[in-house]
Amino acid sequence: MTPNLDIKPDIKISVNQSFGINTDMLVDGFSKKNEYVPEIDKNYKFDRDTTLAILSGFAFNKRILIQGYHGTGKSTHIEQVAARLNWPCVRVNLDSHISRIDLIGKDAIEIKDNKQVTEFKEGMLPWSIQNPVALVFDEYDAGRPDVMFVIQRVLESDGTFTLLDKNKVLKQNKFFRLFATTNTVGLGDTSGLYPGTQQINQGQMDRWNIVTTLNYLDFDKELEIILAKNKNLNNIKGKEKVSNMIKVASLTRKGFMAGDISSVMSPRTIIHWAENSEIFKDMGYAFRITFLNKCDDLEKTIIAEYYQRCFGEDLPESTVNIKI
């Protein structure tokens, strides 16, 4: 990655026009996009409160933490805001394999003038803070302690970053922005739904300027999204099918929150289910290959019951005569 420190926001974007929120607020954006700007999903539906929180992060350089159940679209929400601002955006998943070295950088051997030389290669964090980039940490509450303390250094909006390996102090680019998504609120997994998450020390939590919660979409918005992605179903019969699909998804979410099942259907899963149902012309078979086959065997009976309650028919054990 080659830092480009010269670009900066050069236009004002109307929040009302771009995000459909009734406000006179204008946000800085870029007139041109580069390779790090996410693609725009024209059918994306923005949650008002979450959108305003994210926009405040871009407009006022606030550190934004978005909490919510998985599958609610937390990271996608940040990406779609960035896409409409043409703001470069990079996501890093803080799973257990991400180490301090991955974030900061490491020595690497290169060939120069036909000779092997050892040079320090900056990691994602030093590169990001020197650029007008929105850096998003996914699964923030799953990060290793040594990684979390590295991140803590840049949580202050004007905080510098000391690169010990190069005896160098890095200043944050004026348009560097920092976001994170998390399943918990820094208190660890008190529900038993997210094993592997960690408690985040309060000194670090206090450095996040805004914490917002993103829940699943309401029924009408979800229906609108699914139909926009599957236009062949935008008719009376199709709407009835999609409505029942959303009802199944809602039952999985309630079951997940209650601890009855460990898998949950996101809006993306419903979109895939709808697409597969159009391919195979079989709702039950499409449900099985899209979602049920990913679930724990011990929970499949419960999930099949959800299907039966919404569609009024048992989920068949096997489906024959698939029409492609």
How is the topology of this model organized?
Blueprint: E1 11-14, H1 15-19, E2 26-29, H2 48-60, E3 64-67, H3 74-85, E4 89-93, H4 100-104, E5 105-112, E6 115-122, H5 124-129, E7 134-138, H6 145-152, E8 161-163, E9 168-170, E10 177-182, H7 202-205, E11 210-213, H8 219-229, H9 236-258, H10 267-280, H11 283-290, H12 300-311
Parallel strand pairs: 3-10, 3-11, 4-7, 7-10
Antiparallel strand pairs: 1-2, 5-6, 8-9
Helix pairs in contact: 8-9, 8-10, 9-10, 9-12, 10-11
Characterization of the model:
This protein is α/β, with parallel strands linked by helices and 324 residues long. It is built from 12 helices and 11 strands. The protein has helices at 15-19, 48-60, 74-85, 100-104, 124-129, 145-152, 202-205, 219-229, 236-258, 267-280, 283-290, 300-311, and strands at residues 11-14, 26-29, 64-67, 89-93, 105-112, 115-122, 134-138, 161-163, 168-170, 177-182, 210-213. The strands form 4 sheets. Strands 4-7-10-3-11 form a 5-stranded parallel sheet. A hairpin with a 2-residue loop joins β5 and β6 (115-122). α8 crosses α9. The chain is globular and about 70 Å long. It starts with 10 loop residues before the first strand and ends in a 13-residue tail after the last helix. Mean pLDDT is 85; it is low at 186-197.
